[in-house]
């Protein structure tokens, strides 16, 4: 979608960002107006034999891939390092080994180039992606309701302003993507499981297998998927699993996907009631947002509540560095509007846990 690039004369541009908080190694260069000059994401394959992300393997893979990825991203943008205005990196929450690799790479560049280094909260980056020019037709003005559904996170967040996020509820056990991955494993579908479950579910009947909908109708908007996962396991006695007929497996996959969608829609209804003000937009982010059935249900929900629905393109829903650059840009811009300087986080240590509630501090003088 074409857009006019707003000029931000006092902000350093463009921003190079690094993402290395889980199992995707990513680098991007984005202007302060939100124009993507280059982006690249490498998904690590070393975890496949283990059926899940192995932190040590992830950290080593980031270390191996990042230097060349940074150089390739610069080449794609047709830029020299000295043409970068600032460097940003995901500094948490996430797997500490990978975060250290990405943050140190970014800090090294910032020191060598004498540019500011901006530490980005990975969840905040997911939360602000919808505001990247061209993503939401209305630009996703504040406040909006965000559903973040990934392999590691499942939360409803009221996005009230830059630095101002209210967690309305979240999972009390597994994340939605984690549940997809575990069900895929039970059905012998490999990892990551979400896309495989969705493919198989196309051949199945979503009403064939009765499954529970934990917390459905309960007050608040917390989620629970572990009982659902156990119920799926109980449909699959160990001795039968290997020889499960394809139709039966497809019915289980479709029924599971239906149950997850029912749970998400019910919880979202409660989240909407918990907003202080009516949201401008319903936004979804995270890898599970790639699920076609869930996306269709979310669109239906938004239409029924007369809300615009924004789902970033798939490559910006899953972990990527464009969102990291954009979060750094939004932070710089919001701080500038308050008369505050560009943050310089060169001394900040990556944080495996970094709650969104800490981000309001970023909008005060002492970063
Ligand atoms: O956001 P993401 O790329 O990484 C993080 O977890 O941060 O999300 C990955 C998760 C995995 O659990 C994967 O199985 C799930 O998103 N996923 C899906 C689909 N595509 C990816 N789940 C359901 N349906 C899909 N089509
Ligand atoms: Zn993520």
TrEMBL record:
<keyword id="KW-0963">Cytoplasm</keyword>
<comment type="similarity">
    <text>Belongs to the KAE1 / TsaD family.</text>
</comment>
<dbReference type="InterPro" id="IPR000905">
    <property type="entry name" value="Gcp-like_dom"/>
</dbReference>
<dbReference type="InterPro" id="IPR017861">
    <property type="entry name" value="KAE1/TsaD"/>
</dbReference>
<feature type="binding site">
    <location>
        <position position="291"/>
    </location>
    <ligand>
        <name>substrate</name>
    </ligand>
</feature>
<dbReference type="GO" id="GO:0002949">
    <property type="term" value="P:tRNA threonylcarbamoyladenosine modification"/>
</dbReference>
<dbReference type="GO" id="GO:0005737">
    <property type="term" value="C:cytoplasm"/>
</dbReference>
<feature type="binding site">
    <location>
        <position position="126"/>
    </location>
    <ligand>
        <name>Fe cation</name>
    </ligand>
</feature>
<keyword id="KW-0479">Metal-binding</keyword>
<feature type="binding site">
    <location>
        <begin position="148"/>
        <end position="152"/>
    </location>
    <ligand>
        <name>substrate</name>
    </ligand>
</feature>
<keyword id="KW-0808">Transferase</keyword>
<dbReference type="InterPro" id="IPR043129">
    <property type="entry name" value="ATPase_NBD"/>
</dbReference>
<feature type="binding site">
    <location>
        <position position="319"/>
    </location>
    <ligand>
        <name>Fe cation</name>
    </ligand>
</feature>
<keyword id="KW-0819">tRNA processing</keyword>
<feature type="binding site">
    <location>
        <position position="122"/>
    </location>
    <ligand>
        <name>Fe cation</name>
    </ligand>
</feature>
<comment type="function">
    <text>Required for the formation of a threonylcarbamoyl group on adenosine at position 37 (t(6)A37) in tRNAs that read codons beginning with adenine. Is involved in the transfer of the threonylcarbamoyl moiety of threonylcarbamoyl-AMP (TC-AMP) to the N6 group of A37, together with TsaE and TsaB. TsaD likely plays a direct catalytic role in this reaction.</text>
</comment>
<keyword id="KW-0012">Acyltransferase</keyword>
<feature type="binding site">
    <location>
        <position position="181"/>
    </location>
    <ligand>
        <name>substrate</name>
    </ligand>
</feature>
<dbReference type="InterPro" id="IPR022450">
    <property type="entry name" value="TsaD"/>
</dbReference>
<dbReference type="InterPro" id="IPR017860">
    <property type="entry name" value="Peptidase_M22_CS"/>
</dbReference>
<feature type="domain" description="Gcp-like">
    <location>
        <begin position="36"/>
        <end position="326"/>
    </location>
</feature>
<dbReference type="Pfam" id="PF00814">
    <property type="entry name" value="TsaD"/>
</dbReference>
<feature type="binding site">
    <location>
        <position position="198"/>
    </location>
    <ligand>
        <name>substrate</name>
    </ligand>
</feature>
<dbReference type="GO" id="GO:0061711">
    <property type="term" value="F:tRNA N(6)-L-threonylcarbamoyladenine synthase activity"/>
</dbReference>
<feature type="binding site">
    <location>
        <position position="194"/>
    </location>
    <ligand>
        <name>substrate</name>
    </ligand>
</feature>
<dbReference type="GO" id="GO:0005506">
    <property type="term" value="F:iron ion binding"/>
</dbReference>
<keyword id="KW-0408">Iron</keyword>
<protein>
    <recommendedName>
        <fullName>tRNA N6-adenosine threonylcarbamoyltransferase</fullName>
        <ecNumber>2.3.1.234</ecNumber>
    </recommendedName>
</protein>
